[in-house]
Amino acid sequence: MNIFFLEKSKVRSAKGFSLVELLISISIFVVILTFSMGSLLSVLDAGRKARSLKSVMTNLNFTTEIMSREIKFGRNYYCGISSSFPPPPNTNCTGQASPGTAISFVSSEGVNTIYRKSGNIIEKSIDSGSSYLAVTAPEVTVTDMRFYVFNTQTQAGGDNAQPKVIILINGYAGEKPSLQSNFVLQTMVTQRALDL
C-alpha cells in the first residue's frame, strides 16, 4: 500500500499551468508579436519605397538621356513652344526673366521637336505641337520642369560660345505619402554640331 500511495502523491504533486500563468504568457507573446509585425511592415514599406525610387530614377534617367541627346545634336533652340519651323532664333531664357517650361528646337533629323511639362508628366511632340506623347512613367509625378537656354545668338552669327541648355526637373514617385520619394534632377547640355 505504501508504494501505491507514493506513486499517487507523485502524480498529484506534478501540476500544470494555472489559468493566470497561461493568460500572462499569452499576453507577453501577443505584445512581442505586435512589435515584431510593426518592424516587419516597416521593412516591407522600405522595400516598396526603394523599388519605387529605382523605377522612377530609371525612367527619369532614360527620359533626360533622350532629351539631352536630342537637344545636344539639335539647333535653333527656342525657350517655349514654337509651332513655326524652324523656331525663331535668338531666344535665350537665362533666369533673369522666368525660365521656360518648354523648349522647341530642330532635331538632327530636321524635325521640329518640343518638350514640355503638361500636368504631372513630361511630353514630347515631333509635329510642331499638333500632338504630344508622354515620355515619363505614370508613377512619376513631375511638379516642376524648367529650361534655361544660353548663347542662342551664336546660331545667328554672335560670339563663339556654344549654345547651352540647363534642364531642372522636380517631382516625386509613389502614390501613398508615406512611400513617396522626392527627387530634384539637373543636367546641362551643350550643343554639338554633327560632323558629317
Write the layout of secondary structure elements.
Blueprint: H1 2-13, H2 19-72, E1 75-79, E2 102-106, E3 112-118, E4 121-125, E5 133-134, E6 140-150, E7 164-173, E8 181-190
Antiparallel strand pairs: 1-2, 2-3, 3-4, 4-5, 6-7, 7-8
Q: If you had to describe this structure to a student in words, what would you say it looks like?
A:
34% of the residues lie in helices and 28% in strands. It contains two helices and eight strands; from the N terminus they run ααββββββββ. It has a five-stranded antiparallel β-sheet with strand order 1-2-3-4-5, covered by helices on one side. The protein has a three-stranded antiparallel β-sheet with strand order 6-7-8, with helices on one face. Strand 4 and strand 5 form a beta hairpin. The longest helix is centred in the first third of the chain and has 54 residues, at 19-72. It is rod-shaped.
